[in-house]
Amino acid sequence: MSTVLSSDSTPWRNRYLLMRHGHSEANQQGRIVSDPARGLQAFGLSPTGQRQLDDVTAHWQHSLPTRVVHSDFLRTAQTAGCVAEHFGLTLDPEPRLRERYFGTFEGESSEHYASVWEWDAADPEHRRHGVEAVSHVAARMQQVMLDWEARTANETIVLVSHGDPLQILLTVLAGQPLTGHRRQPALEPASITRVGRR
C-alpha cells in the first residue's frame, strides 16, 4: 500500500519514502517492544515480514532510492537492509527514527496501545505511565527530515521507522493537530508513504 501526501507549502529539496518496518516478531506475539534495551537486539522481522519485504522490493513502485536511513531497532534495521541490498545502497542508522517509548507498558500486550492513544487525543504532551509524549516524537522525527533537507538535494531517501512515529510525523506534515495522529490512515507493515519533492 502506498500513499502520496501533498505539502505544497513546503519547498522540498528531496523526496522521502516513509516506510514502516515489515511484520515483526513483536507484531506476531502482540507485544509492545519499544525499549532499545530489547528492541535493538531482538524482535526482528517475522517470516511474514520477510515475505513482505521480498514482495515490496521485487515490485518496487516508487522512485529509485539513493539513501536508506533507518531506526536502529532490529526490525527496522532488517527492513532497511532488505531495501539497501536490493538497490546496492549503504545504510544510515538514525536513532531519532526509533519506536515511540511506551514506558511501563514495555513488554506488555499491544492492547495497551488503545489507552495511550486515548490519552494522546486529549493531550499530546502527556507522559502517563512513562510514555514518550507525542510532541517529543514529532520533534525528533521532523528534525531528521529537516537535517536531510539542509544536507542534500535531489535525492530519494527511504526513512524506515515504526507505526506510531510515522503516523505522528505525517500528522505534522499535514498541518494537523497532534491530538489527531490516530486519525491518519493506519500504516500497514512494509507500507511506504511518499512525501517531499515531486
What do you see in this structure?
The protein is α/β, with parallel strands linked by helices. Strands 1-6-2-5-3-4 form a six-stranded mixed sheet. The relative contact order is 0.26. It has a single domain (2-6, 16-192), classed as Phosphoglycerate mutase-like (Rossmann fold, 3-Layer(aba) Sandwich). It has seven helices and six strands. Helix 3 packs parallel to helix 4 (74-87). It holds the Pfam family His_Phos_1. This is Probable phosphoglycerate mutase.
End-to-end Cα distance: 19 Å
Proper CATH architecture? 3-Layer(aba) Sandwich
The tally of helices reads 7
The counted number of beta strands is: 6
Query: Can you tell me the number of structural domains?
Result: 1
Shape: globular
Biggest β-sheet: strands ordered side by side in the sheet: 1-6-2-5-3-4
Q: Which structural class is indicated by helix and strand composition?
A: alpha/beta
Largest sheet at a glance? 6 strands, mixed
**Which percent band covers the strand fraction?**
5-15%
In CATH, what is the class?
Alpha Beta
Give me the strand/helix succession: EEHHHEHEHHEHE
Oligomer: single chain
Q: Could you report the average pLDDT, rounded to the nearest whole number?
A: 94
Percent helix range? 25-40%
Low-confidence segments: 1-6
Q: Measured on Cα atoms, how large is the radius of gyration?
A: 16 Å
CATH superfamily: Phosphoglycerate mutase-like
For this structure, the CATH topology is Rossmann fold
Protein name: Probable phosphoglycerate mutase
Organism: Vreelandella subglaciescola
